[in-house]
Amino acid sequence: MSIKDNLNQIKSELPERVTLVAVSKTKPNEDILEAYEAGQRVFGENKVQEMVQKWEDLPKDIDWHMIGHVQRNKVKYMAEFVSLIHGVDSPRLLKEINKQAKKYNRVIPCLLQIHIAEEDTKFGLDKAELEELIESDAFKAMENIKIVGLMGMATFTDDENQVRKEFAQLKSMFGNLKTKLDDITILSMGMSGDYQIAIEEGSNMVRIGSSIFGARNYS
Ligand SMILES: *Cc1c(COP(=O)(O)O)cnc(C)c1O
């Protein structure tokens, strides 16, 4: 199947409320353009420099989402154009995004990444850290970022119940956050292997790479 066929197949399965982020990390510009020509406009990358290069080379009406772990010293390279940062997992990172966004006179939409998986290798805030962050005076004073929702990654396992349980937990935190902040609209959960479950558990943004572009080659 071609990229276009894969994309159309997946899009036909998604409920209307669900936004598809096509995860193009490691993939060449030709592949992205094939998806673009099939109508896709939202792409996700996990390395800042790679995303900047693609932003420079590709059509300007693409929405670039940073879905990976972000180092603070890299924020400045994407502050001009990034349309959503999914992986915000510390007050210090948020502060840096706020600072860089200000230089461009922008308000950068961000998702807070929550640690829902059992593996401790996955980044993210826990419930108490989330609470502390949104209650802090420093956060309330930030004018150049806007928290618009939550993002999480489930444990990499065949145990569907485990994955479902983790997504349900994130959905519940999302509901709770809505009662505390305005503008909370995005729940980013689900990848190639688990997006159907994520959608059943309330996701409205899925990040899908290999099912669209094929397996990645990191060599
Ligand atoms: C790579 C990546 C994805 C996409 O993974 P696939 O399994 O290829 O769909 C989604 N989210 C994050 C955070 C990623 O790093």
What descriptors fit this protein?
binds pyridoxal-5'-phosphate, eight-stranded parallel sheet, alpha/beta, 219 residues, 8 strands, TIM Barrel
Short summary of the structure?
Pyridoxal 5'-phosphate (PLP)-binding protein, which is involved in PLP homeostasis. This protein is 41% helix and 19% strand. The model has no long low-confidence stretch (mean pLDDT 96).
Written overview of the protein:
Residues 2-216 form the Alanine racemase N-terminal domain. Belongs to the pyridoxal phosphate-binding protein YggS/PROSC family. This is Pyridoxal phosphate homeostasis protein. The model has no long low-confidence stretch (mean pLDDT 96). Helices cover 41% and strands 19% of the residues. It is α/β, with parallel strands linked by helices and 219 residues long. The protein has an 8-stranded parallel sheet with strand order 7-6-5-4-3-2-1-8. The protein contains 10 helices and 8 strands. The protein has one domain: Alanine racemase (TIM Barrel, Alpha-Beta Barrel), CATH 3.20.20. The protein is globular, with a radius of gyration of 17 Å. Residues 23, 25, 46, 67-68, 153, 191-193, 207-211 line the site of pyridoxal-5'-phosphate.
